[in-house]
Amino acid sequence: MPDTFFSWYLVTELHVWMICVRLGDDGAEGKFCRNQLITAMWEDLETRAKKLGPVSTTVRSEQLQQTNQHFQAALLGYDEGLTEDRVLAGALWRRLFSSSGRDATALEQTLAYVRRELARLDRLNRDDLLLHGRNSWGAFTAPPGG
Question: pLDDT-derived band of residue 143, with 50, 70 and 90 as boundaries?
Fold first, then answer.
């Protein structure tokens, strides 16, 4: 992906979703942390957007509202793919690759990364995640033979 504000956001959005999936297993505390994580993501997004240059408050507000709508749609698409690779691959293709015609290998690598990280997050100790915020993302590497 190109190194742009939008690609940073899309990668951040994906990682936030993966953590939200994991937090969904942790009851009220998980829900609270999930909400705080999403709030922090939006605050970070707004701070970074302001650094891109002057934009009227109205335009920035409209852009954030539109981004929020896309975020909600992305979460739904990713959630639908939790149990089926084909569905998750479709959501990743639409959101990360914008159906741009990139080769299938990049999509396969991204799908493998997401599945691997979701499994790792599932194994992560609840207290390490909720109380200490300990998480280290794995390297994005090509699958064996890929």
Answer: very low
Burial classification of residue 101, based on how many CB atoms lie within 10 Å of its CB (0-12 exposed, 13-18 middle, 19 or more buried): exposed
Query: Which H, E and C letters describe 116-138, residue by residue?
Result: HHHHHHHHCCHHHHHCCCCCCCC
Task: Give the span between the Cα atoms of 82 and 58, in whole angstroms.
Answer: 36
According to the model, what pLDDT value does residue 22 have? 92
Among 24, 49, 50, 48, residue whose Cα is nearest residue 37: 24
User: Nearest CA to 133 among 10, 22, 13, 8?
Assistant: 22
Q: Which residue has the higher pLDDT, 82 or 128?
A: 82
Evaluate whether 10 touches 97 at the Cβ level (below 8 Å).
no
